[in-house]
Specification:
By secondary structure, the protein is an alpha/beta fold. It contains seven helices and twelve strands. The longest helix has 17 residues, at 181-197. The structure holds adenosine-5'-diphosphate and magnesium ion.
Length: 276
């Protein structure tokens, strides 16, 4: 069997900033990890779902931005598909907390945008857009403009737009952070469903312990100042997962363990959320 390829390699990455008062902030320090190529389940290749979990200010966005190619490490190196990252690229898609659709384009127009600039022909583009609209539950809203939609629906547009280009890696920075609890749960389920159908590897950032466990194959727990990874936790629950999982004892036990680990981490300011 061929050795698994590394999808994301982060090698001894550090990044520091200067505060407005001129103080040095070690946003992330000497971070190293590997996310391997897709694993196979029931004969299908499926990318891994990794979560970066940590309190706000621990460097999650900084790390994600460097993998996206939107920022550069001071020292160390980031590789995606074994290629050094020098800037944004088609192999990576990004979804932010802020809804980032183009307001002047309709839902269908937003999803089609990336396909169009990448030269995908009319017929293929229409077919892909229709499939994605169906997958994220936006049927009937093809011709609506994003600002007329709820936050959850706008995030569906962002997810569909990202999936359209079939990136090998999807980077998500607290994408459900601004949503109410009910919508957030629905979006978690939707994300697991669409991810399962794609072959993408997801690196998902959150400070919500329940969200991290529900979604992840593995969780990197981070501490702040300096931002480092303090533990790599395997989440043993089978897939597909449904929301009933959150009621199970094993789920709550893992939640307590992870929360304890976060609280013991250096720099934990108590701003980690356990949603109920
Ligand atoms: N452009 C920047 N200039 C100065 N400080 C920054 C900048 N970006 C991030 N920081 C600081 O780096 C630390 C990590 O920030 P960030 O990566 O946004 O954390 P998180 O996403 O985990 O909340 C914080 O202390 C933040 O204030
Ligand atoms: Mg952040």
């Amino acid at each position: 069997m061929e050795p698994k390829k590394s999808k994301i390699t982060v090698r001894n990455v550090s990044r520091c900033f200067l505060s407005p008062e001129g103080k040095r902030i070690d946003a992330v320090q000497d971070i190293k990890f590997n996310v391997e190529d897709a694993y196979s389940r029931e004969g299908r290749d499926i990318g891994e779902f990794r979560v970066l979990l940590g309190p706000s200010g621990c460097g999650k966005s900084t790390l994600l931005r460097m993998i996206a190619g939107l920022d550069r490490p001071d020292t160390g190196e980031v590789l995606v598909n074994d290629q050094p990252v020098h800037g944004p690229g088609r192999d990576r898609g990004m979804v932010f907390q802020k809804y980032t659709s183009f307001p002047w384009l309709t839902v269908a127009g937003n999803i089609a945008y990336g396909l169009k600039i990448n030269g995908v022909g009319d017929a293929k583009r229409k077919e892909t857009v229709a499939q994605l609209i169906d997958a994220v539950g936006l049927k009937g809203f093809e011709n609506s403009y994003p600002e007329t939609l709820s936050g959850g629906m706008q995030q569906r547009v962002a997810i569909a737009r990202t999936l359209a280009l079939r990136p090998a890696v999807i980077l998500m920075d607290e994408p459900f952070g601004a949503l109410d609890a009910q919508t957030r749960s629905e979006m978690q389920q939707l994300l697991l469903r669409v991810w399962d159908e794609s072959a993408s590897t997801i690196l998902f950032v959150t400070h919500d312990v329940e969200e991290a466990i529900y979604l992840a194959d593995r969780i990197f727990i981070m501490s702040s100042h300096p931002g480092t990874i303090v533990e790599d936790v395997q989440v043993p629950f089978e897939r597909p997962r449904d929301l009933g999982l959150k009621e199970r004892n094993e789920f709550h036990e893992l939640q307590s363990y992870v929360l304890g680990r976060l609280r013991r981490a250096p720099g934990a300011g108590g701003n980690v959320r356990v949603s109920v």
